[in-house]
Amino acid sequence: MKSIISSLFALSLLSLSSASAHAQCHFPAIFNFGDSNSDTGGLSAAFGQAGPPHGSSFFGSPAGRYCDGRLVVDFIAESLGLPYLSAFLDSVGSNFSHGANFATAGSPIRALNSTLRQSGFSPFSLDVQFVQFSNFHNRSQTVRSRGGVYTTMLPEADSFSQALYTFDIGQNDLTAGYFANKTVEQLGTTDVPEIISQFKSAVTNIYTQGGRYFWIHNTGPIGCLAYVIEWFPLKASDFDSHGCVSPLNHLAQQFNDALKQAVIELRASLSEAAITYVDVYSAKHELFVHAQGHGFKRSLVSCCGHGGKYNYNKNIGCGKKVTVKGKEIYIGKPCDEPDKAVIWDGVHFTQAANKFIFDKIATGLSMACHRQ
Known about the structure:
Layout: H1 2-19, E1 30-34, H2 42-47, H3 72-79, E2 99-101, H4 116-119, H5 126-144, H6 150-153, H7 159-162, E3 164-168, H8 171-179, H9 184-208, E4 213-217, H10 226-229, H11 246-269, E5 274-278, H12 280-289, E6 321-324, E7 327-330, H13 351-361
Parallel strand pairs: 1-2, 1-3, 3-4, 4-5
Antiparallel strand pairs: 6-7
């Protein structure tokens, strides 16, 4: 694994070195596609708000994010001088003048034949998110042409060709297959190629609608997340020296290798596109392996949850309350120092971890409009 991570960092450095002669990029908008790693309120708008204590470290109240505060996409928006992205599905208080967020928690790339209540996975797969974007692209300009307040709430026509298109999706495709009792080998050899093919189609479709600048995150080390570790009984030999599940992390790396190859192919086929492959796996893995060296006290153990080795119970989620003698009390309660924890709720990263991840990848943003 060290060789893979080293090669990814080397490629990143080479890419940045070759781009150093180029002017800095300016993006007037962000259009984001993804899952809970970048959902700023989509699932909450569709199926009910992610309640407290989500949002408590920064927003002071729930803000549609499955996190105590900001996500990586929020830090991206901040760094570009843009407002936080409104969720496309959220009709209350949203402003889309600088982009829109089509991500929803639980979203896969490939549509799953199940409901949210059956599986926990979102019906808003990547192909659906593209349809939503396509509709938004067309209808926003029709409505904006009416003038008045609409010109302050919807993007200008040129924003679509000048925007940064960000992607953070794929984790749920891997975990859905694993939860359905597919072997790591089956997923790697059969499912991953099909998932990647659908991802390429989505990027190509956005390109045909005028998108030119793409920022594509790979997937993280899913074998270090409590909700995956706790799903099935595992053998001691499945764990590495850091407490992560080696076969599942290897699966994530297989996915990332295929995604990286897909990016190479997309660069060749989409002649005007600037596509940046962003290695968040290495940043996230670094946090799990060397948490204390980066100022964190908890790596695998969740900040917000209840019970067990990882302070995680899928039946008692973060924010779960019970009524005792007429008084509501938390049983899925947050830790005292979320800024010292890597994982928020057994599934998602804390704001502090998201900031660490962003800082590791941020340099490339200034060059993301240049072809590689």
